[in-house]
Specification:
Helix content: 25-40%
Number of strands: 7
Strand order of the largest sheet: 3-2-1-4-5-6-7
Radius of gyration: 17 Å
Shape: globular
Oligomer: single chain
Bound molecules: NADP nicotinamide-adenine-dinucleotide phosphate
Order of helices and strands: EHEEHEHEHEHE
Number of helices: 5
Structural class: alpha/beta
Low-confidence stretches: none
Largest sheet: 7 strands, parallel
Mean pLDDT: 96
Strand content: 15-25%
CATH superfamily: NAD(P)-binding Rossmann-like Domain
């Protein structure tokens, strides 16, 4: 009988690190693999194994192979995979969400698409080697409601919105492809709501206190989504309240 693991990509982020705490409380999970560009200096639970990556394509491949080896050696199967990377603003690199099309810049837009869409998809491409035909894996990728095309009433945030819509489309392709080989793999495209992290800091002023969630609250909600199955489809775009979002 295999033990169970959880893998968190982007484990240094506000939501990623809250997922580590959430999985640490789950007695069914034996080992948590935390993947980040850096690792926190302070201790943490014995269940957590940190692996560093610079998130280049080569590093994603190496880390995924290393994870596959560790799962074999330790006789583990990944119960949960969470990809919690993302960028909305980065002042040091001149990235801020565009108010109008005139603000769009090729270089920064490409970077936002790379972090929000391409990097999660390259991780999924490589982590597929951990899937099993007989055991369940629930994959959650942090997206955002603003990536919904039908929900877009306000406009703006061209690169962020566009990168999340592109992510959602690629995840839909992935879900269709993966179903052919792995019936027990499900994909949750998750909107956490406005969460009190680095990413939302400059945009919290007009958010009512009751609508600004703590990362630990969001981690609990995402854990609920991960535990649910839907016989009708292996992919769901949903929010922290498990309410479906139109694509
Ligand atoms: N917070 C919200 O209100 C909110 C709302 C809707 C959706 N989301 C989504 O939730 C996800 C998690 O965001 P968060 O709120 O936890 O933000 P956060 O605290 O800023 O965490 C962002 C994570 O992404 C990583 N990251 C950023 N740029 C990267 C790059 N170039 N290469 C590799 N990793 C990179 C960060 O790594 P480092 O620590 O190394 O920088 C960190 O792990 C994102 O996809 C975001 O779009 C958040």
């Amino acid at each position: 009988m295999k033990g169970l693991s959880a893998i968190v990509i982007g484990a240094t982020g506000g939501i990623g690190s809250a997922m580590l705490r959430q999985f640490d409380k789950d007695s069914t999970i034996n080992t948590i693999f935390a993947i980040g560009r850096s690792r926190p200096g302070h201790g943490g639970s014995d269940k957590i194994q940190w692996i560093s990556s610079d998130f280049s394509e080569a590093s994603v491949k190496d880390v995924s192979k290393h994870l596959a080896r560790l799962h074999k050696e330790l006789n583990l199967h990944p119960k949960f995979i969470v990809i919690a990377t993302g960028v909305l603003h980065d002042e040091t690199n001149g990235i801020f969400p565009e108010k109008r099309l005139a603000d769009l810049k090729l270089e920064t837009s490409e970077y936002v698409f790379q972090v929000n869409c391409h990097i999660p998809m390259i991780w999924l491409q490589q982590l597929t080697q951990l899937f099993s035909r007989t055991e369940r894996t629930a994959v959650a990728v942090l997206s955002a409601r603003v990536g919904s095309i039908s929900d877009n009433e306000l406009g703006g945030w061209y690169a962020y919105r566009g990168s999340k819509s592109a992510l959602n489309m690629m995840l839909k392709c992935f879900a269709i492809e993966v179903k052919r080989r792995f019936r027990d793999v499900s994909v949750i495209v998750f909107h956490p709501g406005t969460t009190d992290t680095r990413l939302s800091k400059p945009f919290q002023a007009n958010v009512p206190e009751s609508k600004l969630f703590s990362p630990d609250f969001v981690a609990e909600r995402l854990d609920i989504s991960l535990g649910q199955t839907n016989p009708e489809s292996n992919i769901r775009f949903e929010d922290y309240a498990q309410a479906r979002i139109d694509w």
